[in-house]
Amino acid sequence: MTVAIEMGSTSAGSPATLDLEELLATRLLVQGNSGSGKSHLLRRLVEQSAQWVQQVIIDPEGDFVTLAEAYGHVVLDAAAHTEAALQQVAARVRQHRVSVVVNLESLETERQMRHAAAFLGGLFDVDREFWFPMLVVVDEAQLFAPAAAGEVSDEARKASLGAMTNLMCRGRKRGLAGIIATQRLAKLAKNVAAEASNFLMGRTFLDIDMARAADLLGMERRQAEMFRDLNRGHFIALGPALSRRPLPIRIGDVQTDGRTGNARLMPMPPSAAPADARDLIMKPGENESVRAMSRPTPASTADILAQLAASQPPQPPAFSLASEMAAHPVREMPPKPSLDDVLREVLGDPEALYRNVAQVYQDFLVRCRQYAVNGRSVDLAAFRRKMATARAGVDAETADTPEWEKALALSTAMPEDFQSVFLMLARAAHDQTPCPSNAQIARARGSRSPRRALGLLEFMEQRGLIIIDMDAYGARVIELPALGWKTGAGNPDALDEDEVA
Ligand SMILES: Nc1ncnc2c1ncn2[C@@H]1O[C@H](COP(=O)(O)OP(=O)(O)O)[C@@H](O)[C@H]1O
Ligand SMILES: [Mg+2]
Q1: Superfamily, domain 4-254+296-326
Q2: pLDDT digits (tens, 9 = 90+) for 248-257
């Protein structure tokens, strides 16, 4: 059975269809100048095919996040995750068959490329048993597969270009169907563009893009002139999944809104007196803080993983892919956790310990809202202490003892930079374990530089907070005079086990 989704209508008024199964095998390239309607077209395609096939959207402009509510796509804020974490998430996306939007909007180009490469790499590298068909939509693909070296590092460009080449050239066997859109065909790497057999060509002004389009489509350059006169939302369709001959079509409506509207001129409001105008912009308005707070916060890696594990694959109607899809059981939501559970979950993520306290606190609040737990009962100051305790590696039992309370109280009086290190040393002293190495101390500070950790220790010693003692064998003991405690002897240059693992 073939599934034909309706992309819009032809000039004769008949439906313009796209054969989804053919598309999986033959990929699609969309080209058109900025404002020609490419993102709208991609949205139409995604909406119409959402019930049939899993989808991933690489979204450099945050255009597609609105698909989440209507179609259940999980939105991944790429800025909130490391490349390694994104790669892992991608593997789980395939395993659990969840449709996602990878929002790259808050990253600068170099990191957009690296993060997209990591995610695409994760999709590509999964075990054979997870090679289910999926559409991989990449908007503004020239960013990820640039034809020429730009301002980004060679390394980022190679990673990103490699991932795009894999997607378009070798993805098919793995079930990945690349759908890429670009505003400048001449800026898109040739080998990436060449792997698409279907084309939707929109309005194009520049001769060089027109010439590239003509070459790709096997048209006379003169014939390609027709792209110049296309209106917004009008495209020429060609390819095995679309039409055997160049077919002008108009893309139909979409259900969800894009976020980048067209700027329209609007009459100015009646002007206020200059003094009033100044007040209007300098003073916070009513409810303003509420609005600022309600901006969606990026979810943490653990969050997204929990969401992925809890979501269910799309329920497909009868389709030749259906048997594969149906084979996957629906996962159940976990029972409602307590506040402590949520805290443990958030602070249990090793990545969280490297991040800024305020950000992790926001994650914590978001997670609490998801679980309908009142997170505000832990304020930022309390959260900071909990995080410092977690960074120090203190277990829940120790954290509740009076001795530890004393260490905690001492630490809160110190400059923030010292707190987590002090607590880590206190913990080693309390538990009579070896003095932590520089690498471990670096980690407790949320950094990865052992050299700086050593510098900090020396600084703390100058301030009289600790006393560093080396024994004849090069092992280090640190004393905490205010507590009257001393750590065991430890090798300062030992590697951080958690890092090695
Ligand atoms: N087929 C269409 N029907 C109605 N509006 C459209 C259509 N195509 C594009 N638009 C509108 O035109 C504007 C620009 O479209 P967009 O898809 O963002 O362009 P591009 O991604 O090519 O820069 C958007 O406001 C979009 O909603
Ligand atoms: Mg766009």
Answers
A1: P-loop containing nucleotide triphosphate hydrolases (3.40.50.300)
A2: 999 999 999 8
